[in-house]
Amino acid sequence: xxxxxxxxxxxxxxxxxxxxxxxxxxxxxxxxxxxxxxxxxxxxxxxxxxxxxxxxxxxxxxxxxxxxxxxxxxxxxxxxxxxxxxxxxxxxxxxxxxxxxxxxxxxxxxxxxxxxxxxxxxxxxxxxxxxxxxxxxxxxxxxxxxxxxxxx
Length: 152
What we know:
- By secondary structure, this protein is mostly helical.
- It is 72% helix and 0% strand.
- It has a domain at 21-117.
- It has helices spanning 4-18, 22-39, 54-72, 77-94, 96-100, 102-116, 124-142.
- Helix 2 packs antiparallel against helix 6 (102-116) and helix 3 packs antiparallel against helix 4 (77-94).
């Protein structure tokens, strides 16, 4: 059983991930990180609007912060996701067309995943196991019971 100690943290992470909109928060934070990286790019097409491009750095930083907040505090996911969509769309004007469109799309997709996440649903693997268990019980109920003393 040497695999046992390695498996426990993975199962704990899987349980933590199932209780929050993990992929939505991750995509929102990655979108903000990508836009921040394009702000530092040494390209001639980089735009800087406002006071030395303050909005170009502020909005992607907010995207990263909102993505992390979704992961840490999933109860406020609706507010974070609506704000994330608005901030992501705002980067179209302030941050190189939303990080050359990639960061903008990651941010909008992550916000939409977060908005659509429902906390009451159980993980898919649990539903599958329960269905398999119910099938096995139905099969066992259909099998004829044979007494141990009677042989045919």
